Amino acid sequence: MAPMGIRLSPLGITVFCLLGLGVIYHLYAGVLSSRLSLFKQKKTVDLRDLLALSIEAAVQGGREVKRIREDNALEEKSKGKTKEGASEKLTLGDLNSHRKMFHLIKNTYPQLQVNSEEHDNAEGEATIWARHIPKEILEKVPGEKEVLAERITVWIDPLDATQEYTENLRQYVTTMVCVAVDGNPVIGVIHKPFTGYTAWGFVGEGANIAPRASYNTNSPKVIVSRSHAGKVKSFIQSAFGNNTEIIPAGGAGYKVLALLDPTDEEYEKADIYIHVTFIKKWDICAGDAILRSVGGQMTTLKGEKIDYSSSEGNTGGLLASVKTDHKALVKRLPNWEGNK
């Protein structure tokens, strides 16, 4: 006998069962959907944690860079030619540093996009970050800074200034990590393996490095790449005068720190940093973030902000300055069409 005295035909029983299954399905689907939604909502990363991880990655990579240089085990190769025609070097220091840095970040945050200058087919390091946050970071960034992982792009340079590394010009060599959010550089870390000095900046939160007291833009000291110092000389002199002092140096990380006041003494003191040829974004993203964190700017030669969410290369050259009228500097620059 059916409930309430209702007699069901076989067809009715089938319909009744199907309706019941439908109700159960919708209830289950609703619960599953809610759980999936909650799971998606939790795909965030604390930028304060990511800053501490970035510092650890740069330091671990730097240890490999230093060890291999001191062991004289570079295993130097050529990756080809740069756009300026110079040989682009690759060493075991580059590769081992890449493995340490890349896999430390990816093992800790698998969902993040990590762009590195180097690529290799070696098995990944098993290292996972111990989640130690240095005291100075806790003091400058007291609270969590959660951001959706899909908005983040990480750029790492396992060995900046490889050419100088092979020449044993150790003062120019750095390892760098940059975190961009929606294409904007937010966290930058520049580490010097041979002195142990590390500079970092977190835009809107603080930095462990500061600008110098003053800068001279009337007769500035301009720091440029060693690889094209001659090529850029006339460009700079037409903007700032024939007596402008030009400082050739290796490594984009080194050049950015030359604009600031690092506690490491191995630096020239420059007022402006100019680059007129093609440059990769892992070379400049960390420096851009650090400059922004202390009120400086890095733009293309036309004064445009550089987007760190898209392609690897920046073809617009760059102009970097601190505590100056950056727009006025851009207006003083002549047209440059040789930066492609």
What does this structure look like?
By secondary structure, the protein is an alpha+beta fold. The chain has helices spanning 10-41, 47-70, 92-108, 135-140, 162-166, 229-240, 252-257, 281-293, 326-332; strands at residues 44-46, 77-81, 87-90, 113-116, 146-148, 152-160, 174-181, 184-191, 198-202, 206-207, 221-225, 245-249, 272-275, 279-280, 297-299, 313-314, 318-321. Helix 2 (47-70) packs antiparallel against helix 3 (92-108).
List descriptors.
340 residues, 9 helices, globular, alpha+beta, five-stranded mixed β-sheet
Low-confidence stretches at least 5 residues in length (pLDDT < 50)? Answer: 31-41
Give the mean pLDDT: 87
User: Cα distance, first to last residue?
Assistant: 86 Å
Number of strands: 17
Brief overview:
The chain is of the alpha+beta class and 340 residues long. It has nine helices and 17 strands.
Topology (elements, then pairings):
Elements: H1 10-41, E1 44-46, H2 47-70, E2 77-81, E3 87-90, H3 92-108, E4 113-116, H4 135-140, E5 146-148, E6 152-160, H5 162-166, E7 174-181, E8 184-191, E9 198-202, E10 206-207, E11 221-225, H6 229-240, E12 245-249, H7 252-257, E13 272-275, E14 279-280, H8 281-293, E15 297-299, E16 313-314, E17 318-321, H9 326-332
Parallel strand pairs: 4-6, 11-12, 11-13
Antiparallel strand pairs: 1-5, 2-3, 6-7, 7-8, 8-9, 9-10, 13-17, 14-16, 15-17
Helix pairs in contact: 2-3
